[in-house]
Amino acid sequence: MRKLFVFLLMISIVSISPAIVFAQSKTEVLVKNATVMTAAKGTLENTDILIQNGKITKIGKNLKAAANAQIFDASGKFVTPGIVDAHSHTMLDAINEGSFSVTSMTNVRDVLNPHDIAIYRALAGGVTSANLLHGSANSIGGQNSTVKFKYGKPVEDFVIADAPPGIKFAMGENVKRSNFQIQGQTPRYPRTRMGVVETMRDAFLRAKDYKQAWDDYKAKKTKVPPRKDLELEPLVEILEGKRLVHAHGYRSDEHLNLLLLADEFGFKVATLQHGLEAYKIAPEIAKRGTGVSIFADYWGYKLEAYDAIPYNAAILWKNGVLVSINSDSDERMRRLNIDAAKVMKYGNVPEEEALKMITFNPAKQLGIDKRTGSIEVGKDADLVIWSEHPFSPYARVETTMIEGEVYFDRNKDIAKRAELEKERTELEKLDANKAPGSGGTPPKVPGEKRIADRDDADQTDGGNR
Amino acid sequence: MNSKFKIQNSKLFKTFAFLLLTAYCSMFTVNAQSGGTQQNLTGKAGTFAIIGARVVTVSGAVIENGTVVIQNGKIAAVGANVSIPSGAERIDGKGLSVYPGMIDAATNMGLVEISGGLNASVDVAETGNINANAKAIKGINPHSAHINVTRVNGITTVLSMPTGGIVAGQAAIINLNGATQSEMSFVPEFGLVMNFPRISTFGGFNPITGPQIVDFNEAVKRRDTQLEDIKKAIKEAETYNLAKEAYAKDKTLPFPKVNLNLEAMIPYIRGEKPIIFTAERERDIRGVIKFVEEMKVKGIIVGGQEAWKAADGLKKNNIAVVYTNMFSLPVRDDDAYDYLFEAPSKMQKAGVQFAISTGDDGANVRDLPYQAGVAGGYGLSKEDALKSVTLYPAQILGISDKVGSIEQGKIANIVVTDGDLLDPRTNVRYLFINGRLLPLTSRHTELYDAFKDRK
Amino acid sequence: MKSKFILFALVAIGSLFVGSAFAQSYAVTNARIVTVSGENIEKGSIVIRDGLIEAVGANAKVPADARIFDGSGLTVYPGLIDSLTSVGISAPAPRSQAGGPQPQAPPAATSNSNYAEGLRPEDMTINDLKAGEAQFEAIRNAGFTTVLTVGRNGIFNGQSAVINLAGDSVSAMVVKSPFAQHITFTTLRGFGYPNSLLGTFSALRQMMLDAQRLQDLQKMYDANPKGMKRPDDDKSLEALFPVLNGSMPVVLNANSENEIVRALDLAKEFKLKAIIAGGQEAWKVADRLKAQNVPVLLSLNFPKRTASASPEADPESLETLRLRAETPKTAAKLANAGVNFAFQTGGGTTSDFFANASKSVENGLAKDAAIRAMTLNAAQILGLSDRLGTIETGKIANLTVVRGDILGKEKTITHVFVDGKLFEQKEPPKKPATPSGGTPTAQPAVANVGGNYTISIDIPGQSLTGTMALTQQGAVLTGTLQTQLGTSPIKDGKVTAEGFSYSSTVEYGGTTFDIFVKGTVTGNQISGTIDSPQGTIPFSGTKNP
């Protein structure tokens, strides 16, 4: 027994860190001799970036750092801001509350899983921030979380505290539930695009009444305090301009109907999500200052995605619309750099504008651009070091850091693999892992669920992400 | 085709015929009007000379300042100093690169227009488990919007495969040009697709409770039963063939009742044509190897996530891998993040014959060059990355004598670009299939032109 | 009265009373006494009267009227407490694992709640308890005298009860009811709200807020009803008042780190008096548990490998391997971090409970801490340390008597005292050898169905007769089915408490088809159904003499 005990202790030393985390303490960090693509002020050759307390404090040539600073020699390499994904469902233990068509009372913050391996894989693709959205099964879905991918940290560290709150709206096929049926369930209202708009209008009218009831109570016109209604509270915040609306949709008519509804109720839609036909109504969108977050060229997976074109970004950009390119997929998230590169070809979007579409623009859409999204003095040091130009298909992420701490490093990842193999060998020797017994917790099934988790294309999930 | 698309087509065609024509003409610096004949969307034939370009032959060295002559649908000449036939349309290749058209050896091109919720446009999966006589070439829609969208990105040839059941049917190699199935056809009945039975613990998706999980041992049993079913079907086909051949020699014997399904299997079980096995995991790939050895058939693997782990068996049995997982997530949480990015390089090192494919049903086959590019970032040389979507798939599909590289006598499937073919920033400037110069238009350019100037 | 009598009879049959019902006083003498409250007494006496401990000590005076229980060679512990079970509650129907949607929950038995089943905090475990069930005896035989018990259905599991494991009636068994509200982060059956974890949290939150408001409105109304609309009398919301006021603890079922963090967040948000139940990964958040002063009812149902690896199976994930390696260290880590915890079976077996308590000790937990986790700590967390958990004068006379070390491999629970009543333990059944100390789960009682039956199969317009030859070995059924169609062997034959089932392959007209037979046997009558590709056909028959 004693032997076993000592052995178990040994194992615990190896396995104490649940994840591969290379985060460093908050000392100075100096990235040297890089080609710095700032996503704000052009590309700077042979440039250093000095990071202190997680912030970028100096950008220039031949910068000096403290003696104990962590140095990254990026000679011949490229540095970009960390990628911001304006549409993701990574980290969510549940994506849709599909019961009602209005589920604004739900909040993805309640179901974040900071151990999702997809986070690490996204970091390995240069993504540092994301807009984690409720699914698209509902006209008005749940509240979002805007996070940084601080993998290995407690969940509360992920959430960007000063990001404005947001909420998911959705229109079209998913909300109508045209592509799947649940046997035995009474069809849910709405079943048409007509009904979707009415569902939204109804919700906002209820929200207005609700606000009135509270105003009356606060003005002492009524005696009994109204019920605090978690469904309507976020809608009131929308009406007050305090909550960002991220509206999933495809067809230009439905997006425009939402914009008209927003006009009617006097709020602004922050982003049209997907917006694959947004190019058809670019002037209308531009006029309202609404952003659009799109796939670069993903199309054709359902009828409402059939008019999608890869020139969407270019047309919107030329109309002055704030455009971002998102993944909506744990897989695609790892290659947003390639998606951004595509818009240079489709409609000649300049390089920096293309880079902005995966960095600064989504940061603006999410209201976190004061912190992240570009390489400028005073901002969080959310940086990616690339082996070559990030728009080259051959580019690899070498290092990803958030606020100056390293969360992914290719060399360290490779070095760690042997360690993990050794840990596995040791663990497999343990009695608990060796001999079958009865009872106990059933083993976790291998994650084949991950095969395809993208928003709309996947048939097996009811198409409702 | 759905009604929406019809409207788009007819209306758009009239509205934008002019725009299209102007756009098309302006792309060509020379002789675009060519005797006043109006170009149709399947391009125009003729003699062409791409002059002074960087010619990436793939099969040989890069010719920095070379010329490629296209005549009668073939590559008539290629080199630094070739004579240009009189009357050839001359294309100034300065600053441009000439590549062989890319080949995607595992798609469902033309069989699926809109996969989600539009069954009327889906012709990819026949019902039943054994569908050997289902032929992709008879289901491909030559007017699918996917075809133009794909080819304008430099992909000129694809394998289009059916997917239904265990024996899914026969895959066709097609060129991405032609008004009819036969005009597109390259090898109409190339291979028999078999979704090789695998251990799947996936027991369907419940909208309320999510994915349902089947007990592992149960899944093993299910796999084994399916495998037995296939072997049984092959035995039946052998019996059928025996009876047929016997009857051919001796008409007094009973004529076997016609069975199209069994009949279709004959060339494949005789090893005359390849069986295309879909398989991903090591255990399934080893299963394919065993099957190929046992049944003495010719095999190609589509999928191939862990093919490199079974390199010996694959090499021994000349089984090539069409790898479709560049843009897939590793299945297990413990897999390294680049587990699937690195697989082509691992196959290369292990000596497994391979090609890279999107495995896509059609709309996103145009991502092929970037998928190869990413492999080039994870261990594969840039040259091999290029070969993995040109010469290698041609070799695997048995058509490397005709396509896959720029060599005299080969079919003129040629892409002229302003940069690295695998780079997402690169524009395709000219496109030839079977020597026809094709307009660089698609559903996407049409919609772009229609809306880009809307105020 | 009648039902009470039957219950009493059941208890009497189910266990062996050493003393008679009239024995009021015992003296356990010459025993080693682990008081838990103080030093161990190497040789001493415990005097029990009227269900309470009257005296304890090396020199405690033995009254003349006490029956002497010679404790030589035995160790007496405070009665062991299993700090979370569902003992005495009939198990809910398992959720279907097959594909296809879940059936709609059947309409609940009459409830005037405004909330769906599963969102009814007013549900009282005590209402579902039945005294005298065999499972009380089984757990008592394993050495437990007291459990916390609650149903495990729904999001709000309802209000739990602490019961002693013997008594003529539920009311006599109850030590404390209700003890706590229990919450599981799950979804409701069917399609209603909430059907995702997202909705679970928003539904919980809204109900808490609504309850807070109702409480305020009721106070307002009680103070001055004039001119105010009468607030609803909502029993579901009202059941949450004590939870929100901090007078009733909330037990949150949470095993993974994520679940525990979510539970702690919820507790913080509504200032709940929270207790974590399960706590497999509690060591990962020990600091937060300590800071929020949240105790843990730690499950001793440690994860185990349940099946031999198939040669074709994927290697198990590191996460799984680590979890199995780490779980036995949890108790020690919690103890080191100063987090209060008690042990519970966690849905596992009582033998796992002791085996894994020992494993926790092997992995660094002090032995006395392990014993406290099944006695005093449990009593403290359950708010009953003034009456349970130690051997002290005046406390409830719940004692567990052991030959050997309770944490050792060689131990026998010889007796327990529950409320001063003595129960002698029956010889433990001989264990069949199992690998790695794994203990087979108790075999459920099965029906007796063996025999040869002449059956008729009711195909419309036809009469098919046959013989069903059933050979039963425990829960395994073999034999044959013989009809005009031939004789086919029984495959996958099973016998349960209710009846039997098997499948078979029948040949007819040159083709074979699979059938599935299930049925029951009552006396010499057999009846059931045959599922065939042609449909479901009933059969019936009689046993051949």
Total beta-strand segments of chain B: 18
Strand content of chain C: 25-35%
Number of domains of chain C: 3
The total count of helices of chain B amounts to 12
Question: Helix tally of chain C?
Answer: 14
Shape call of chain C: globular
Mean pLDDT of chain C: 84
Specify the overall morphology of chain B.
globular
- In which range does the helix fraction of chain B lie? 25-40%
Overall structural class of chain C, as computed from helix and strand content, comes to: alpha+beta
CATH architecture of the largest domain in chain C: Alpha-Beta Barrel
Summarize the structure.
The complex is a heterotrimer of chains A (465), B (455) and C (545). Chain A is 29% helix and 19% strand.
Written account of the structure:
The complex is a heterotrimer of chains A (465), B (455) and C (545). Chain A has 465 residues and is an alpha/beta fold. Chain A has two domains: 1-82 and 373-434, Urease, subunit C, domain 1; 83-370, Alpha-Beta Barrel (TIM Barrel), CATH 3.20.20.140. Chain A has helices at 2-14, 117-123, 155-158, 173-176, 193-218, 233-239, 252-265, 282-288, 312-318, 336-345, 351-356, 360-365, 410-429, 431-434; strands at residues 29-37, 43-52, 55-60, 70-73, 78-81, 83-88, 127-132, 140-143, 145-148, 166-170, 244-249, 271-274, 291-294, 323-325, 383-386, 397-402, 405-409. In chain A, the strands form three sheets. In chain A, strands 1, 2, 3, 4, 5, 15, 16 and 17 form an eight-stranded mixed β-sheet that branches. A six-stranded mixed β-sheet of chain A has the order 8-10-11-12-13-14. The longest helix of chain A is centred in the middle third of the chain and has 26 residues, at 193-218. Chain A is globular, with a radius of gyration of 24 Å. Chain B is of the alpha/beta class. Chain B has two domains: 3-101 and 443-451, Urease, subunit C, domain 1 (Roll), CATH 2.30.40; 102-403, TIM Barrel (Alpha-Beta Barrel). Chain B has helices spanning 3-27, 145-151, 181-184, 216-249, 260-269, 282-295, 311-316, 343-350, 368-377, 382-387, 391-396, 443-451; strands at residues 48-55, 63-71, 74-79, 89-92, 97-100, 102-107, 155-160, 167-175, 185-195, 202-206, 210-213, 274-279, 298-303, 320-323, 354-356, 414-417, 428-433, 436-437. In chain B, the strands form three sheets. In chain B, strands 1, 2, 3, 4, 5, 16, 17 and 18 form an eight-stranded mixed β-sheet that branches. In chain B, strands 6-7-8-9-12-13-14-15 form an eight-stranded mixed β-sheet. A two-stranded antiparallel ribbon of chain B has the order 10-11. In chain B, a hairpin with a 2-residue loop joins strand 17 (428-433) and strand 18. In chain B, helix 1 (3-27) packs across helix 12 (443-451) and helix 4 crosses helix 5 (260-269). Chain B is globular. Chain B starts with a helix and ends with a helix. In chain C, 47% of the residues are buried. Chain C has three domains: 1-77 and 390-428, Urease, subunit C, domain 1 (Roll); 82-93 and 114-306 and 318-388, Metal-dependent hydrolases (TIM Barrel, Alpha-Beta Barrel); 451-543, Beta Barrel (Lipocalin), CATH 2.40.128.120. Mean pLDDT of chain C is 84; it is low at 1-21, 92-108 and 430-444. Chain C is an alpha+beta fold and 545 residues long. Chain C is 23% helix and 31% strand. The longest helix of chain C has 27 residues, at 197-223. In chain C, the strands form four sheets. In chain C, strands 1, 2, 3, 4, 5, 6, 17, 18 and 19 form a nine-stranded mixed β-sheet that branches. In chain C, a hairpin with a 2-residue loop joins strand 26 (511-522) and strand 27 (525-532). Chains A and B meet through helix 2, helix 9, helix 10 and helix 13 of A and helix 1, strand 11, helix 9 and helix 12 of B.
